[in-house]
Design goal:
The protein is α/β, with parallel strands linked by helices. Helix content is 25%, strand content 21%. The strands form four sheets. It has a four-stranded parallel β-sheet, covered by helices on one side. Strands 4-5-6 form a three-stranded antiparallel β-sheet, with no helix packed on it. Strands 8-9 form a two-stranded antiparallel ribbon. The protein is globular.
Length: 242
C-alpha cells in the first residue's frame, strides 16, 4: 500500500491528487518539495514536533514555515496507524496525533522513515563482529570492529550517512592501517545540505550543541531577509542565515 524513495524515482506518473509522505528526514522533505513542485497536494506526517531531526532547532522551524508557505500540509507529532486501499485505487491513511485519531484519503503513500544497514547474510555474526541496536556494525574511533583485523566504514556503521563522510573515513582507515599513522575520522566540521525548497545547508555545531559544549557561553547571530531574486519576482520567501 506504500512506496519507498526507490519506487518514487521510477513512477509512471506524478500523483494526480495528493500524496501522503511519512517521515521528515532528508528523503521525506526533499521528495515533498519535488512532488509539490510538480503540483501534487502534499501531506507530510512525522512523529517529532519539527522536521529534520539533528539540524539546528531554529533552522528546522524555518524549514517547516517554508514548507507550509509552499502549500504543503504538515502533521507534526503524528503517527500513521493503518493504510487501507479503496475500490477506486486510492488509499485511506489512518493516523493518531496525541489523543486524536483521524484519517485522510490520498492517491499515493510514501514512507521515508530511514533505512537499516544491510548487515545480515554476509557472515558477520559467525566471525564475531558485533552489531548495534539498529543493526549497524559497532566500531571504535579508528573504525575497527570487535574483531581486531576487521574494519568498517560508511553507512553500515550508523555514523554520518553521507558519501563524502564515507570517503573521509576510508582515507582515515588507509592512513591508520597502511600509513602507520593512527587517524580517527573528524566529524566536527562536516558540511551538509538538504535539497528541500528552498534548500538548507550547514556546517559546524548547531546552537544546541554549541551551548552544551561551551556551558552556554556563546554568541548567536541571526539574519533574516528577502533576497533580491524574491523581491523582483514578488515572492514572500525569505532567506534565513545563522
Amino acid at each position: 500500500h506504500a512506496i519507498t524513495s526507490d519506487d518514487a524515482l521510477v513512477l509512471d506518473e506524478i500523483p494526480k491528487n495528493s500524496i501522503v509522505i511519512v517521515g521528515a528526514g532528508y528523503i521525506s522533505v526533499e521528495f515533498s518539495s519535488i512532488y509539490r513542485g510538480f503540483g501534487a497536494d502534499v501531506h507530510l506526517m512525522y512523529r517529532k514536533p519539527l522536521p529534520l531531526t539533528g539540524f539546528d532547532e531554529e533552522c528546522r522551524a524555518q524549514v517547516a514555515d517554508d514548507l507550509k508557505g509552499r502549500g504543503m500540509h504538515l502533521y507534526p507529532d503524528t503517527t500513521p496507524t493503518k493504510i487501507e486501499k479503496n475500490e477506486d485505487g486510492s488509499f485511506t491513511v489512518h493516523y493518531k496525533s496525541g489523543d486524536q485519531e483521524s484519517s485522510i484519503k490520498t492517491g499515493l503513500v510514501m514512507f521515508g522513515t530511514g533505512r537499516k544497514p544491510n548487515t545480515h547474510g554476509i557472515g558477520l555474526e559467525e566471525v564475531g563482529v558485533k552489531l548495534d541496536d539498529r543493526e549497524g556494525v559497532q566500531v571504535d574511533e579508528y573504525s575497527r570492529t570487535s574483531v581486531p583485523n576487521i574494519y568498517a566504514i560508511g553507512d553500515v556503521t550508523n555514523r554520518l550517512a553521507l558519501t563524502p563522510v564515507a570517503i573521509m573515513e576510508g582515507m582515515a582507515f588507509a592512513a591508520t592501517v597502511f600509513g602507520n599513522k593512527p587517524t580517527p575520522p573528524d566529524y566536527r566540521t562536516v558540511p551538509s545540505a538538504c535539497f528541500v525548497q528552498p534548500p538548507l545547508a550547514y556546517v559546524g555545531y548547531t546552537e544546541e550543541e554549541a551551548v552544551a559544549k561551551c556551558s552556554g557561553d556563546i554568541d548567536v547571530f541571526v539574519s533574516k531577509f528577502k533576497p533580491m531574486k524574491n523581491t523582483i519576482s514578488l515572492r514572500d520567501e525569505r532567506t534565513f542565515m545563522k
